[in-house]
User: Which sequence fits this backbone?
C-alpha cells in the first residue's frame, strides 16, 4: 500500500476482524453517528461490486474457484470499488468507511496458501487507511457467535475447497484459525487500532469514537449546507449519538 498519504482532503477508516467479531455492527453505528453530525460520509463493503457479482456466484455455485482465482476475483471487486467509489470520494473530501479493506485479502488469501508478497503487490496501488480498526476476538468466541446462528456454512466460507476436513464445521474452524494468525501478524506492521471485541457493543463503540475523535478533526467534514428536509425523510439522521460513559 501507499504509506505516504496522497494529497486529498478525505479520510479513510477501515474495520477488520474475524467473522463474528462485531466489526460490521460497529461500523454501522459509526456511520449513523457521523451522519447525525451532518458530516460527509460514504460506506463501502467487501465483495459488493456489481462488476464481478455474477462471475463470483457462478464460480462458487459450481465450485470452480482455486485459491488464486478466488483471490483475483476479490481483487477485481476491490479495484472496481476503489476506482469508482473509494478514491474519488476521498478526493472529494469525504470520510470513507470501509467494512473490510485489503487486509481481508491478505488474511484470507494467505490462509488459503496464496503468497503474502504476491497479494501485497496486487493491491499495492491502494492507499493506507488513516485508521485501521482490528476487532480482536478469541477464535473460540468468534466460532461460537457464527456457528450458533448459522444452520449451514457455504462451501468456500467453510474452506472446504482446501481439503482440510470433510466436516464443514471443522474445516471452518481450521480456516478461521489460519485467518486469525494472519491478522495477528499484521497488527504491528500495519498499525492496527486494536479493539477488544469481547466487550459490550456500547463499550466498543465508545472506544471507536474516542479514537476517531482523537485522530480526525471531524469539523472539517461538515456539509457546507444541509437542506431543511423533514426528519422522517432522513432516517439515517434520526439516531442520536451514544453518550460517553
Assistant:
Amino acid at each position: 500500500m501507499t504509506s505516504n498519504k496522497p494529497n486529498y482532503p478525505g479520510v479513510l477508516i477501515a474495520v477488520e476482524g474475524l467473522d463474528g467479531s462485531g466489526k460490521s455492527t460497529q461500523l454501522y453505528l459509526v456511520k449513523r453517528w457521523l451522519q447525525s453530525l451532518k458530516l460527509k460520509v460514504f460506506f463501502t463493503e467487501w465483495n459488493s461490486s456489481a462488476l464481478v457479482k455474477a462471475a463470483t456466484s457462478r464460480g462458487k455455485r459450481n465450485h470452480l474457484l482455486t485459491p488464486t482465482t478466488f483471490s483475483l476475483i476479490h481483487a477485481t471487486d476491490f479495484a472496481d470499488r476503489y476506482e469508482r467509489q473509494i478514491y474519488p470520494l476521498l478526493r472529494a473530501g469525504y470520510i470513507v468507511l470501509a467494512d473490510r479493506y485489503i487486509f481481508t485479502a491478505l488474511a484470507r488469501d494467505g490462509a488459503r496458501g496464496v503468497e503474502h508478497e504476491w497479494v501485497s503487490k496486487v493491491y499495492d496501488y491502494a492507499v493506507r487507511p488513516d485508521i485501521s480498526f482490528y476487532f480482536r476476538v478469541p477464535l473460540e468466541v468468534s466460532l461460537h457467535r457464527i456457528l450458533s446462528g448459522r444452520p449451514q456454512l457455504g462451501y468456500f466460507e467453510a474452506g472446504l475447497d482446501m481439503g482440510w476436513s470433510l466436516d464443514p464445521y471443522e474445516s471452518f474452524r481450521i480456516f478461521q484459525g489460519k485467518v486469525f494468525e494472519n491478522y495477528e501478524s499484521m497488527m504491528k506492521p500495519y498499525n492496527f487500532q486494536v479493539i477488544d471485541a469481547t466487550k459490550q457493543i456500547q463499550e466498543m463503540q465508545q472506544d471507536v469514537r474516542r479514537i476517531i475523535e482523537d485522530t480526525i478533526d471531524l469539523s472539517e467534514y461538515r456539509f457546507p449546507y444541509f437542506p431543511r428536509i423533514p426528519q422522517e425523510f432522513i432516517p439515517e439522521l434520526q439516531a442520536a449519538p451514544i453518550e460517553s460513559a
